[in-house]
What does this fold into?
Amino acid sequence: MTEFRTLPWTRTPDDAPRRVGVEMEMAGVEAPDIAQAVIDELGGSFDADSAFSGTVRDTELGEFTVELDAEILTSRRYLDALKQLGIELEGGAFRDNLEKLLSQVTGLVVPHELVCPPVPLAALPRIDAIRARLHAAGARGTEASALYAFGLQFNIEIHSQDADHLLAILQAFLLRYPTILERDEIDLSRKLTPYVQPFPEDFVAHLLDPDYAPDRDGLIDDYLRYTPTRNRPLDALPLFAWLDPDRVDAAPVEHALVKPRPAWHYRLPDCRIDDPDWSLAEPWAAWAGVEDLAHRPDDLRREARRRFGESSALKRWWSATWRSLTRRGQR
It folds into this structure.
């Protein structure tokens, strides 16, 4: 699949064209190699911060960030640890070579990540062209190793801030989630990690209840009460933190990791960048299917009613009990 499906809503609340940001995790290539793939497709130049990270500036589509997904390395906090042992490394060839070695060794398990700026939906084929260049350069993805729980993430700008619309998107995602999981054959390594754990059953039933019609404050409150974590296949915390920062700040969430933005953070897909038959159009089609269902209110209500009827009191009780036990264990 190479054609990108269109979305039923194409404008933001400000009546601007909707945009999407893309994040790709991979191994097998270093930061300069990733940057070169961007430059070859979109121009620009690479400003390296270290062997682990840097920024591709002045491209046709904005600034791209390349980093090793290990904060202790990208922030150079490892230098502080060495100082405590009496070892001080000044800038120069030795530290550069050490960081290059650390990048190569750490990259066997910790992915390098390419973070793309928000681009118009029509520009997604250009991002996919970068994906193809990285594939040709030897990038390895989720299925290359049992240790590679690498993900692909879309940050899709919202169409509306209204509670009804936000609820429709969440409901449609909850209804489409099992199909996406089965059809896209999400890798076991990612299912076993905490990064994309499914939404709890009592939350699913609460949102799909035919009588549920919250205002926006109520919707955000319920989300924070049932699932106060970013580790979901559709992470709404960045969006809710942008819509209502005080409400999210007061909740027990991973505040340092939540980056407010007017977008849905869809983080379920694998990054199968080493598969010659895979493209970004495949996981994008799954998201487009979510919005298509949200755009058909009669179908959405019918499917929600059916799924709500399948949710037993026992399943909801166990979901709530497990959440309570987990929270106690974190105190």
